[in-house]
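Hi everyone,

Forwarding the result from last night's run.
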Amino acid sequence: MDKPRHAVITGGEGELARAIADELSSREYRVDAPGRNVLDVTDRDGVAAYFAERPGITLLVNNAGITRDYPFLRMPEDDRDAVLDTNLTGALRCSREAIRQMLRSRTPGHLVQIGSFAALHGTSGQSAYAAAKAGLIGLTRSLAREVGPRDIR
């Protein structure tokens, strides 16, 4: 019998998360798609607690994201920080917790980062968003080297 498959999709309130959840459910995954009120990816302790309460995760989809559109020189620092903390640091936090589980349980796993056109091409007024999404590309490539050999892709 195959091991149960358990997916977590961050940013669960949106249409993309719902579509991913529907597809994974049709493939016999148990799916958790928490919204920010359940899993705030900007809350370090909250992320650790969320994952500690949900063992057996085999797939993480880092989908949580926000944007604050401003010309670069007019972007308030708080808005810039919120975009980076949600889109990049939140993915780092969630990936770390999911990978820890996968390694501890010696379970193969998968990480999916939701990127953006802006990561590769930039978009006017979205410097923080583009930087965060480009950071996800670097994160994914680094994790592939670090944990790929341990059957986490």
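Residues 60 and 153 are 10 Å apart (CA to CA).

Cheers,
N.
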